[in-house]
Amino acid sequence: MKLRRWICFLLCLVLTVCLCAPALADGELFFVAVNDTIPLTLSVFPTYSGGTLYVPYQVFDSQPCGVTPSYNQAKQTYVLLSRTRQMIFDLAAGTVSDESGSVSTANVLYRSGILYLPLTFCASHFGLKTTMLESAGGYQILRFTDGSEVYDDSLFVEKAENLIAYRVRQNQSGSQSPERPTDRPNSGSQGTQEPPAAEKKPATVYLAFTGSETMRASMAALETYKLHGTFFLTEAEILADPSLVFELLAAGHSIGITAGEDDEDLSDALTRANDALCALTCQKTLLALLPAEAEAPDSYCVFHAPSSPVSAADAAASETAHLLVCSENTEADLYTLFSAEARVLQLLENADRT
Prior knowledge:
Blueprint: H1 2-20, E1 30-34, E2 37-42, E3 47-49, E4 52-56, E5 68-72, E6 77-81, E7 86-90, E8 95-98, E9 103-105, E10 109-111, E11 114-118, H2 119-125, E12 129-134, E13 140-145, H3 153-172, E14 204-209, H4 212-224, E15 230-233, H5 235-240, H6 242-250, E16 254-258, H7 266-281, E17 287-290, E18 301-304, H8 312-317, E19 322-326, H9 330-339, E20 343-346
Parallel strand pairs: 1-13, 14-15, 14-19, 14-20, 15-16, 16-17, 17-18
Antiparallel strand pairs: 1-2, 3-4, 4-11, 5-6, 6-7, 7-8, 8-9, 10-11, 12-13
């Protein structure tokens, strides 16, 4: 009789451990995908409790389909917000409220001090679908979709395999970015050394890419340095090479629009380019690149190309933020920026640039 009780106790204990253990404990990395991109890689994993899948709050740092997270330490609140919906988790009171003011019990978990949120409960509130996928290498992928995705799950996994493999290699090598180029060896002279110069603040450089014929080479260079960029396309370029758009999105890059050299009505050129992008991907962009003196339409987040070309060396040596427009020699430009230890950032809607 005692033996049976012990067996029952052990079975219950094993079941409890299995339910509470991270769902992806066998993998080193966990990937978060949004539609056709993989903007986030984590080393903390989802966990099951009571048959419900919970995800670490960092998952929403990917800003899935426009859902933005915010944490207020003073008020002990964690907020998920979109243009029309919101979820406010009051962590102290253990409640969650939505945009209508409706309040319910917040079923959240804490594992090793990390906040975990119920995935389906959160995603469904914003009209998002979630699927758990697995790469060819056995790495798990959480994919958020809102209906605007281009690839189905199986094709998405196939397209994303190279990016996942690259990030895994970076993680296994113990670095999150390629090794910076080293300084040249000195000549061995034992003469009087100059006093060290005052530490200089690293330059900030935002990257923009134009010219569809060189964009695939630019993508390869960015992948080497584990960077993402913003690629500006004209209507003609979108129509001529639609697969390029999908490749850019699948690799996690942003798409912007620009006008051709022969376009006199810039506002109309941007509209036509955005319409072509929407017809192809079912989504439009707010990012636009125009010449230095061009008037900016109110409906876009417009970046102006420098009136005089700025080289990577000039941008890396500047004490102010610069917009570097790349079309050719991206690999050499990135080498120059990393050699100067510049801060290289992706051009986004809120970028502080000059």
